Structure of DUF6444 domain-containing protein:
Amino acid sequence: MIRGLREIIEAKDAESAARDIWIASLRATNQIQAEQLVTLAARVEELERQQGRDSGNSGKPPSPDPIYTKKTKARAQDRSLPER
């Protein structure tokens, strides 16, 4: 009977050790993903900031500005003017 209890205890100890290793692995993965999240969030913020730039708010000449932006602005202004 005592031998059977010792075997059960040893089996539970082995399960507990395996579970501790698994938890440590998950924590390490979580830490890596948290660091990646911070890096990617900063990258998204930078890309969004760059996307909003054109010749009016950067040091670039107007030639690299997208053509569709200029047409869209011109059309919006035409519509806002009263008809004569």
In short: The two ends are 104 Å apart (CA to CA).
